[in-house]
Amino acid sequence: MKNLFFLSFLSCLLGCNSVVKKPLSDLESIQIKTSFVDLNDNKVDLTAFKGKRIVVNYWATWCGPCLKEMPGLKRAEEVLKNYNYIFLLVSDETTSKIAKFKKVKNYDFNFLKSIESNETLGIYSLPTSYIFDEKGNKLETIVGTIAWDSEEIINKLKTL
């Protein structure tokens, strides 16, 4: 009887392999929390940008500090495109409001709309930016306005 119990226990133990889950990258975790759409309401999967360094900048059309840093952000995007960077500017406002802003201000950013509110994502201050490496791991969080095109920031981004 002891042998039968032991064999049953052993077969259960060996037969019930635990599933090893691959840990999610930070970028994949963000993608699970919300969906993103472009200005034509096409769904955008952030994990499609894996293999690139990504700057995700959360902003709003009404945010003065966000608007103040945009020219420097655009210059940094131009300088860093040869360093495998992509810049994504994300707002939780309507796509029509973002599209109107883009047209009026004549900014050629990769604008996206977050389906979830910034607060739901834990973003309570604008602008807030996240920098991800090629594998989707978050390297840096920047809350507030910075001089994106300053020599210091450009050099830092080049070496991340």
Fold blueprint:
Layout: H1 2-15, H2 26-33, E1 36-37, E2 43-44, E3 53-58, H3 64-80, E4 85-91, H4 95-105, E5 110-114, E6 128-132, E7 138-143, H5 151-159
Parallel strand pairs: 3-4, 4-5
Antiparallel strand pairs: 1-2, 1-5, 3-6, 6-7
Quote the average pLDDT.
85
CATH class: Alpha Beta
- Largest sheet descriptor: 7 strands, mixed
CATH topology: Glutaredoxin
Spatial extent as radius of gyration: 22 Å
**CA-to-CA gap between the ends?**
63 Å
**Stretches where pLDDT falls below 50 for ≥5 residues?**
12-21
Structure characterization notes:
The chain has 160 residues and is of the alpha/beta class. It has one domain (26-159): Glutaredoxin (3-Layer(aba) Sandwich). It has five helices and seven strands, in the order ααβββαβαβββα. It has a seven-stranded mixed sheet, with helices on both faces. The model is unreliable at 12-21 (pLDDT under 50).
List keywords for this structure.
single chain, 160 residues, alpha/beta, 7 strands, 37% helix, globular
Quick take:
The chain has 160 residues and is α/β, with parallel strands linked by helices.
